[in-house]
Amino acid sequence: AKVRNLQAELRRRPTTAPNEAQLAAARLAGEQHLARAHRATVRELSRANEAVIREVERLRKHLGALTPISDSLDQLARKAYGFAGTEPTAPNRPSNTAVAKPPERIVAAPRQDVEKPRPSTQRDEHDGLPGPYRRILNAIAWFETIGIDEPNRIAVSFVAGYKAGTGTINTYFGRLNSTGLIHYPSSGCVALTDEGRRQSQPPDMPATTEALHQAVYEVLPGPLGRILKELVAAYPESVDRTNLALSAGYSPGTGTFNTYIGRLRSLGLIGYPTTGQIVARPILFLGNG
């Protein structure tokens, strides 16, 4: 009975629609709630992205540590057969010698492991110089055609198609130096010997600063190349770190952007002239070292 009385009383009360002020307040509260939820989601995604980048960098360091070991094994094999020689072949057997056929056995199918592509080491048909070494010689020869006889090793690495400073390219430089095809005239620079010049051939690319930039961009991952292009366009002026992030399409101060800047600096392509400023290095511009 009490419930029926309350229901009857509620039906007798006049119903009033919310006024404009109440509606506006409700809309504002809803928008603020959505904005807070959006910011929280962006923060979570940013943290997740940074965690992924850190993990990728960690794995890259481990892979980099394995590269010199792999290259050293490759060098030992080359020493066993001779740097420009051919692998030994089995001795010829007399044609009238009977060879017993071994019993057949079941062999498990080999694992189909996916290997990371490595630079070709196919020997040249004339001098027996493996492809990676020849590309480095050719890159130095390209610099000679434009009057730079002692180019920076970083620039040479990128023209040859390699990232500077890695264990792979450093192993190749060391091997070429030990075999008398290149030498180090000064710190950070490299030059051809007479024999190295004889075995080199400049690549078919224009002798321009733009061609050097393109060679660098082709080696760099997309995000690093996008940031470097902004610095190249501003050279010789430096760029404010915040403005650089915005112009390259990144949020200033985030872990992602800072990681990319750190990688460009470790590759020797950029520098920090003053606090908060970033500049492309002169080695990216022909005639500036």
From TrEMBL:
Region (Disordered), start-end ranges: 84-130
Bias type Basic and acidic residues, positions = 112-128
This chain belongs to which protein, by name? Uncharacterized protein
